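REVIEWER CHECKLIST
Item 1: Sequence provided? yes
Item 2: Single chain? yes
Item 3: Sequence as submitted:
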Amino acid sequence: MSDPKNVSLSRRQIVGGAGLGLAAVAAAVPAAAQGSAAPAPRSLEDPRTKYPQPPYNKQSQPWPGLASKMDPVPDHGEKSYRGSGRLAGRKAMITGGDSGMGRAAAIAFAREGADVAINYLPEEEPDARDVIALIKAEGRIGLAIPGDLRDEAFCQRLVADAVNGLGGLDIVVSNAGRQQAHASILDISTEQFDWTMKTNIYAPFWIIKAALPHLQPGSCIIATTSEQAYDPTPDLYDYAQTKAATMNFVKSLAKQLGPKGIRVNGVAPGPIWTPLQVSGGASQDKLQTFGMMTPLGRAGQPAELGGIYVQLAMTDASYANGQIYGAAGGSGQP
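Item 4: Structure as written out by the authors:
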């Protein structure tokens, strides 16, 4: 018969032994993990000095302008954006995808695993080629669909070509916009006013109507609005109203499409360094000090918004609907 003294263990011995076991396991974890490469640490960056600060050089381009000819050339995340498969298998169409926030979104989407179609004006072909090359470098489908969004028939064809070329569609980014600065309402012709309205208000209406039959529950629509929707400047009379309308259609359409499982959200940039500014969107005096009045003291770069479009497109953001996400360097709303 066994000696009870050898069989029974004190509570202190049990706890002590368990502690030794846990310590051994804890010590083994780092050793086992030594074979896997840990992400390289990223140093902190001061947002005030991360990008070029004003004064910026005077410069002008004919509408619609090319990012590749700007000084400094905008950063769209070409070298900095790192993906992690958060949009694997998704199918996205982006208007104005050659430059600005559209280009930043296209690069980010592709690096997150999505196939991407971009729309742009034929005059923007050089910038668009660069974007398509970046998308394809990620092993994704990159589809270029040039054309003028003021044409309803083209908007319908744009959606059809995107669906056919990508094999479906579940992310629609309505980003393209026209912006021209005028000191007075008297300087805006009916033709110019109509151009802005057709590009910024009619085109999203036509595109969303054409896209809806293809969007399944879980799909999303993301619109680019602006801080101008909340705090308009006097020289952007027509542009500011279109961005207020964009903000409003996001909130309205979110209520209409939410019950169908389709989310609608918007991004409201502040002063961002894009071809809009150098092709008539800002006066030369305003261009030189662009973004200086923000708390960060500079204009933003498109790359600083790419992650916002990704976040709104991800399934993780499934409860974000009818929201406007701002990025204005500390000024403006929301």
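Item 5: Key structural point noted by reviewer: The chain has a mean pLDDT of 91.
Item 6: Recommendation: ____
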